[in-house]
Amino acid sequence: MVEILLLVHLVLAILVLSIRSLFTAVILMAIFSLFSAVLFFVLHAPDVALTEAAVGAGVSTFLYIWIVKHTQKEPE
Amino acid sequence: MKKTNILDVVSRKLSPFILLFGIYLVTFGHISPGGGFQGGVALASGLLLILLAQGPAVLVQYFPLGRIAKAEVAGYGLFLLAGLAGFLLGAGFLSPLFPPPGTIFILNIVIGAKVGAGITLICWYLFHEMEEQE
Amino acid sequence: MNRVFYGTVLLLFSFLLLVSLVVEREPIEQSKGYVLEQGTQETGAVNLVTALYLAYRAYDTLGETIVLIGAVTGVLVLVGKHT
Question: How many CA atoms lie within 13 A of B13 on its CB side?
């Protein structure tokens, strides 16, 4: 179970780094955080899993989207 | 971006349950998994859902910004006061004052209010700044 | 060449992470045993994580709240000017 989840993490991380669209990368980061939460839950740390699900998938996605909106180039 | 009906209905129906789950996490933090920080972040994400889907006006109507800021400051002050009270009563800084579950329960509620208010404030100001740029 | 190098380093790192997660190892006995035995009685919290960060390590939690209030103040100073 742990190995499968870590493999999913690896695939998602490579996707996040290699994808062109920044918004898609941010959403993939949120999915990555969700899988991290599942991994923490499997490893018997429900408190950390709750924090990861709330902060990683909720608040940090908002912050990343804010940053992407502020640093994007205007289409010519 | 255009707002759809699905987003409107789902956010209105879902955010009270997220807030309820946050309150459960805060108040039962000493029994079940969870606690002040986790519950506070869950509360903040419920408020963030209202903010993103319904707009800042609805959030300010139910949770005025002044009260959120006061909750933030009061949380910090109460935590410091709890520490200083133990110090003044001669038991040491941040020592438990109430019979066993009491201190942890109260500190959980204080930290939950503080963390929820703080993250909501950060997100509100960032969102407001983003709207002003457009 | 560069990509091969970084890919090798990443694979090595992930292998180390996998080993560190999967392999059973001896836990640190003293403090863990003390908290497991006395924690619920001393603090009244069944959830021992809460017992740790609000009773035994409450000073750390105070520092965390200071960090959060600093973050809020920073955001207010940077973007809260024209509201």
Answer: 6
Taking CB atoms and an 8 Å cutoff, what residues of chain C touch B79? 61-62, 65
- For residue A76, is it within any domain? no
In which domain, by residue range, is A7 found?
2-71
Can you give the residue range of the structural domain that contains B53? 5-133
A3 has a chain C CB within 8 A of its CB: yes
- Whole domain around residue C69: which residue ranges? 2-79
Q: Please give the biggest Cα pair distance in chain B.
A: 61
| ipTM attached to this prediction | 0.82
Residue in A46, A59, A69 closest to B48 by CB = A59
Across the 83 residues of chain C, what is the mean pLDDT of every consecutive 10-residue run?
A: 88 86 71 80 81 83 89 88 61
C59 CB within 8 Å of a chain B CB: yes
Residues 6 or more apart in contact with residue C59 via CB below 8 angstroms: B93, B94
- Summarised one tens digit per residue, pLDDT across range A39-57 is 999 998 888 899 898 888 8
Which residues are CB-neighbours of B42 under 8 A, at least 6 positions away?
A50, A54, B18, B21, B22, B25
Residues of A with CB below 8 A from C21's CB?
2, 6, 43
Residues 6+ away with beta carbon under 8 Å from B63: B47, B120
CB atoms C44 and B31 under 8 Å = no
Model pLDDT for residues B79-131, shown as the tens digit of each residue: 888 888 888 887 777 777 777 778 888 888 999 999 999 999 999 988 888 87
Tell me the torsion sign for CA atoms A27, A30, A34, A40: positive
User: What 8-state DSSP symbol labels residue B99?
Assistant: S
